[in-house]
């Protein structure tokens, strides 16, 4: 089993999760009820209620927790691969001598389970981040319960594209593990 591919995949998971975690932190520092950034009049009946703001904070925290969990699992697997590499390393040169493939004896099932758990954490983080963004739209443009066309125009692509991308991510991940 080529471990350099797995280490590269784990590095990518950690890097993407870091970017999403940064986005969550920026979202948590933002004041949702800043009247200069809201398109809804504060006196109108369509002013977002406090439940939407509470959900916004909850989904940000859930998203942060999921991304952090996923990153820590990925880093633990990567560290385990590095430790096992130092104990039993088999180096194979390609025919041209330009590439080196490192093979390490690892428990294939445990590696796959760990990578799938890490991927599940990333998927959960993306779902919670999407839900937080839906609440941001409702605070800025107006709640969905008021029938705001602008809110629906912002949220409909979000709830179509994000789950579609996650479905592709999961399918490609499962396909990669069956090969």
Automatic annotation (TrEMBL):
It comes from the Eukaryota. Keywords: Membrane, Transmembrane, Transmembrane helix. The keyword Repeat does not apply. The chain crosses the membrane at residues 12-30, 59-77, 117-139, 151-177. This is Maternal effect embryo arrest 60.
